[in-house]
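Inputs:
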Amino acid sequence: PMSNRRRHTGSRANPDPNTCLGVFGLSLYTTERDLKEVFSRYGPLAGVNVVYDQRTGRSRGFAFIYYEHIDDAKEAMERANGMELDGRRIRVDYSITKRPHTPTPGIYMGRPTHNGGGSSSSGGRRRESNYDRGYDRYDRYDEYDYRYSRRRSPSPYYSRYRSRSRSRSYSPRRY
DNA sequence: GTTGAGCGTT
């Protein structure tokens, strides 16, 4: 029947309209404050996240903009896409992923059971950040996350394999 | 002020 026919949901190339925008091609020097200034022109923001490299702490050159209203997101996406920011042409699109990660999904969110907190439930205090409202239904782990996170191959090119086969063959070095 | 394809777990 139709019910399990999968609705044509956004692809990577064509994400569905959404209150979260991904901004790519940023200058490394564009800050969240800069983005806030620019993107709040189209409507109230719920948040801005520049993605930083965990090691170097530098921007990875892309960010996510959260709008309160999807209409503002639409407008921002149309008007800000291709605009120049800090000398770089930025690409703005609806985000594929909705949030960095779900903190401990599917675990008990109530009070700690040790200490006789007693009441088993309902006290489950949920986090109330800007990003938490209304995004829970997007919490499925998309395929993308896995694809990008599990790629850890021990780069064959610098292994002893190569150096061995290298050293066995004499080097023709012509001058 | 790295030159830049890309969708995030501070």
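The first strand of chain A starts at residue 20 and ends at 24. Flag for discussion at group meeting.
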